[in-house]
Amino acid sequence: MNNRATRRKSRPRRLGVGLVELLISLAISAALLTATGAALDASFKAYRTNQEIGDVTQRARLAMHRMLTEIRSTQAHEPSADVLSIYRAGVNVESTSIRIYTDDNNAIEYRQVGSEVLRQTFRRTGGVWEPATAHPILTGVAPGNFSIGMEPQRSLAASRAGTNFDQLRRATIRLTVGASATQSTRTETTNSGQTMSLVSSVVPRRNAW
User: Fold this and answer.
1) Which of 78, 165, 152, 169 lies closest to 122, judged by CA?
2) In a domain, 71, yes or no
3) Is 10 part of any domain?
4) Domain limits at 147?
5) Dist. CA 72–CA 204, nearest whole Å
6) How many domains are there within the chain?
7) Neighbours of 117 (CB within 10 A)
8) Is residue 171 part of a domain?
9) pLDDT in tens, 47-75
10) Do strands 106-113 and 97-101 pair parallel, antiparallel, or not at all (unpaired)?
11) Per-residue pLDDT reduced to its tens digit, 76-129
């Protein structure tokens, strides 16, 4: 009997995880997983935001470059009709659109309609400017976030004749573009309200030299 009791006492006890230890380990694991998930979510949001900023910047610069190039390479320009008379009188104006007259009897007009900046062409037929289809070159522009400052000057012929100001000395385009989840670009998915503002000035080459 004594030997049997001694053998029982010498056997090692089976050790395991108790309920308290299990709950503590689960709590620690949950906290670590939550922290990891929060960090991953923040990194994904930062990535999408950076994608939005890059996309907005690219679109704004491309649209601005196109407008500046066409203004720079042409000679005849007009602001919107509501400020045309004071522009021809020699006053600097802030316009909501600009019309560019090319040498091939065509005209190009940039103006904002809703949240888009449109480029529309016109063809002169029988003394009448016939409009063609307007195409958006930029979206995500809130109302009032597109304007063109125009400084007039007289051409040499107009100076000699003493007539109205008939040329553009300098144009300054102000543009603010925003990112929106409703736009068609694939990278804009967070609707974070990121915006990009650009201001650029251009001088028509043939009016300057």
Assistant:
1) 78
2) yes
3) no
4) 36-208
5) 4
6) 1
7) 25
8) yes
9) 887 888 888 888 899 999 999 999 999 99
10) antiparallel
11) 999 999 999 999 999 999 999 999 999 888 999 999 999 999 999 999 888 888
